[in-house]
Structures are given as C-alpha cells and as structure tokens.
C-alpha cells in the first residue's frame, strides 16, 4: 500500500538491476515513478544500467502510488483475504476501511494517462513547429528506439536485424509503479479504451498482478493529436524473462 514506505529488499535490488540490464539498450525520453521509496529505487536502478539516458531526470508523481489499503496496510495478505471473506466479498475488489476503491485507483490511472497523452501531443507539436523538422505524416519524425522483446511478444512490432526491433516514436516513456495499481491501469486500457492484446494472452494473465519488475509495453497512437481516442496496442504484459 501507501502507508508503509519501506525500501527494496536485497532481492528487490537484484530484480531492479536485472530489469535495468534487460532495458539497457532502450533510449527513454521521459521517466516517471511513484514517489514511494521502493519505486524510486527501482527507477534509479533501471536508469543506472542504461547506456543512453543514465542522467535523465526521474519525475515523481503521487498518481502512480500503489492502491491505498487503509487498515490492512502493513499486514499480511492473509489478513486482507480474511477481511474480504468476513465482508462476503472477493479479495481483489474488497475495500478495507480507509482504503481506496478500485474505481478511485482507476481514476488516478486515467488522470495520469491523459497527462501522458497531452505530453506526447505537446512534444509532437513542438517538433512539428521547427522549420527543419518534417511532420509526423512524413513518416520520418520522432526517434528510433530499440526494444529487447523476442519470442514473448505479440506481432505488432516490425522486427529488425539482430536481437531487437526498432520503431519511430515521438516519445518513449518509462513508468515505474506498483502491482495492484498497474492491474487497474491495464483494466482501464482494456475495458475503457479497447486496447489490442497479444493473441496468446489468457484471461488469467490479464487479471494477474505483475511480478516485481515485470515489464509491460504499450504502443499509443494519437491520430491527428486526438486525445479522446488513443489507439493502444499491448506488445507484452508482465514480461519477466529477465528474472
């Protein structure tokens, strides 16, 4: 939750370093992280291993915090399950006293995603306004980014020679957050914005919480700078081959 702001364990630091090595060839344009210590340390570890953007500023945002669990914070998961059972509810949708509802968490995720979309549009407008810069429609704007996805990917990315694939994007944004929060965000993508999912993704995978440092990759297209109808494609979900 939010109330227990503990640092990463020794295992957590190893996992963050492994994620950093996995993403070391990816050139990020922006990095956002929850302001909780475990997420801050994860983001710093990932950037510390990066070959291109080690000195990129990490921006901390309270909207990326884990779900607030109220009276259940700092207690074992078994206690939360027992509370839910006593209330006659299922654990994932149960809201302990003083905690956030799933709708409240999703609203935070929605607000932050809309902020990211606005950021991307402003970047594209700024680039488009430069005399020497070709527009998006020319197919040559933006930057190339190399991703490490291999056989666990969907087929939405064009492959290039070698170990990864390359795409032209206006922004490539790393977001470091938390398991329950990200599950709600992905739920918003799927139910609210009709996100396209990999063909081999099962319902249980879609509803599961990401492992620590699990990587999910989404491509967002905003045709004609339309913030109301983002086209979202999930390349991979909760990918953990680096662990």
From TrEMBL:
Protein name: TIGAR bisphosphatase
Residues the record lists as binding substrate: 38, 66-69
GO BP terms in the entry: negative regulation of glycolytic process; regulation of pentose-phosphate shunt
Organism annotation: Pardalotus punctatus
UniProt-listed Gene3D superfamilies: Phosphoglycerate mutase-like (3.40.50.1240)
PANTHER family in the record: FRUCTOSE-2,6-BISPHOSPHATASE TIGAR (PTHR46517:SF1)
Gene Ontology cellular component annotations, sorted alphabetically: cytosol
Single Gene Ontology MF annotation: fructose-2,6-bisphosphate 2-phosphatase activity
Coiled-coil intervals: none
InterPro entries: His_Pase_superF_clade-1, His_PPase_superfam, Phosphoglycerate_Mutase
SUPFAM superfamilies per record: Phosphoglycerate mutase-like (SSF53254)
Gene name of the record: Tigar
Keyword entries, A-Z: Hydrolase
């Amino acid at each position: 939750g939010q109330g227990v702001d503990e640092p990463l364990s020794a295992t957590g630091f190893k996992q963050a370093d492994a994620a950093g090595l996995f993403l070391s060839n990816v050139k990020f344009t922006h990095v956002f992280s929850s302001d909780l210590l475990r997420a801050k340390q994860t983001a710093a570890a990932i950037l510390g291993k990066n070959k291109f953007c080690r000195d990129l500023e990490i921006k901390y945002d309270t909207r990326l915090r884990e779900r607030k669990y109220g009276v259940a914070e700092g207690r074992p998961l078994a206690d939360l399950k027992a509370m839910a059972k006593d209330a006659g509810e299922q654990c994932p949708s149960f809201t302990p006293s003083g905690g956030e509802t799933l709708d409240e968490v999703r609203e935070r995720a929605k607000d932050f995603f809309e902020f990211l979309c606005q950021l991307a549009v402003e970047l594209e407008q700024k680039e488009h306004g430069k005399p020497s810069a070709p527009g998006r429609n020319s197919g040559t704007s933006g930057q190339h980014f190399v991703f490490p996805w291999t056989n666990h990917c969907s087929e939405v990315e064009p492959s290039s020679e070698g170990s990864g694939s390359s795409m032209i994007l206006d922004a490539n944004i790393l977001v470091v957050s938390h398991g329950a929060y990200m599950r709600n965000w992905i739920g918003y993508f799927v139910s609210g914005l009709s996100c396209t999912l990999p063909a081999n993704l099962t319902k249980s995978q879609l509803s599961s919480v990401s492992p620590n440092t699990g990587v999910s990759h989404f491509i967002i297209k905003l045709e004609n700078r339309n913030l109301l109808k983002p086209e979202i494609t999930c390349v991979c979900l909760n990918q953990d081959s680096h662990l």
